[in-house]
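Help needed: design a sequence for this.
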């Protein structure tokens, strides 16, 4: 289920994106019994720094629901406020979006997406 998905968010501006989770045949995967979490970190996956921002369905920055016209809760939507991008700050980071159980522990094979997370100065797209 994992995919490379780079994110570029402008500093001080709300940002949103979504991830549709499908199986190898392209069928939507029911995520209704899971939670989701992503940490935005400096460094790299091989040498991660401390989390600059944690987003999850508990703090409302991630939601799991069916996509428009769908009947299966297979879409994870990330919604960041302007304050969230200010908290992270301008620069190059990375993130990993994972499925977690009710205690916040990542589930086996629960990596949904991983990629660069870049916060750009407002008004610039690099």
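Sure. Designed sequence:
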């Amino acid at each position: 289920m994992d995919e490379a998905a780079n994110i570029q968010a402008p500093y001080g501006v709300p940002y949103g994106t979504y991830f549709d989770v499908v199986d190898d045949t392209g069928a939507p995967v029911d995520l209704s019994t899971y939670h989701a979490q992503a940490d935005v970190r400096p460094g790299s996956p091989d040498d991660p720094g401390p989390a600059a921002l944690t987003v999850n369905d508990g703090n409302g920055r991630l939601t799991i629901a069916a996509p428009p016209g769908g009947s299966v809760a297979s879409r994870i939507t990330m919604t960041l406020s302007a304050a969230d991008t200010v908290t992270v700050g301008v620069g190059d980071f990375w993130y990993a979006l994972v499925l977690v159980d009710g205690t916040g522990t990542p589930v086996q094979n629960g990596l949904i997406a991983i990629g660069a997370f870049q916060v750009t100065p407002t008004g610039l797209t690099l």
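The CA atoms of residues 65 and 121 lie 31 Å apart.
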